[in-house]
């Protein structure tokens, strides 16, 4: 629907419409959805085994792919790092919430992935991108700005608020929650519309870029290796049934659009990141069908 409305001109300039939708969902819809999802969930379900699985799958896939790229290819350090990042950062926000809601029954299943990535993994890989593109460590001021960015992230703030309310067993009155639920309803349609708009005018896998093999490698790792590590970690932790299915589904999400944003910011293999985001987004349908056949 986002692609159709963008192509038809109903929403004006597609780039501006996507900008508005992305900001509305990032600053308003997503935090509201996180808060109401947390208040309807069990704190152990968020901070227990699922976040351990998300951490192991993300860090394990990223480290393994970085090692493989450095040992078995002759690509640059930048290409190697971006390939590893594309292989291990899941789209927990734009795709995680809708899939968790419609496939798993609750958007809360996306929260462990978002928490791990926003609070831990994003600062790590952005630090790495800075080092490989500039050849030096970031200044203390840049590090402080990064910390402030993590702490001030609306999703992180909503998560902290929700966890505090859960831990203190605070019952929020319905008349206060009703407006928050209304804002939360904006999140998933807004994310999906924005993604559809992002497909307008894209020309992925251009031969002259020379990234097709790396995109294929990153896609295979993101949709194959990362879910496999999640499944193995979940089994070790004693997860079974729907709980195991949920963590593997979240690991099989496509590469996050934030990876392309970071690559653009550091001018690091931008087309590789962009193409991997698009190809994994298309390929995740097949990956989820396979996961459903095996574990659903």
Structural overview:
With 296 residues, this protein is mainly alpha-helical. The chain has a single domain, classed as Na+/H+ antiporter like fold, CATH 1.20.1530.20. It is built from 14 helices and no strands. It has helices at residues 2-8, 14-39, 43-47, 49-72, 77-88, 96-104, 111-134, 140-151, 154-167, 174-198, 212-236, 241-251, 257-266, 270-295. Helix 5 packs antiparallel against helix 7 (111-134) and helix 6 (96-104) runs antiparallel to helix 12 (241-251).
Task: Supply the key terms.
single chain, 296 residues, mainly alpha, Na+/H+ antiporter like fold, 14 helices, 0% strand, globular
Summarize the structure.
This protein has one domain: Na+/H+ antiporter like fold, CATH 1.20.1530. 78% of the residues lie in helices and 0% in strands.
How many strands in all? 0
Main beta sheet strand tally, sense and closure: none
N-to-C span: 28 Å
The low-confidence parts are none
Q: What is the count of DSSP helices, taking H or I runs of 4+ residues?
A: 14
CATH topology group: Na+/H+ antiporter like fold
- Work out the count of structural domains: 1
Average predicted local confidence, pLDDT:
85
Q: Radius of gyration, Cα only, in angstroms?
A: 19 Å
Q: What pattern of helices and strands is seen along the backbone?
A: HHHHHHHHHHHHHH
CATH architecture: Up-down Bundle
Q: What would you call the structural class?
A: mainly alpha
Q: Kindly provide the name of the CATH class.
A: Mainly Alpha
DSSP helix fraction? over 70%
Shape: globular
The fraction of residues assigned to DSSP E strands is under 5%
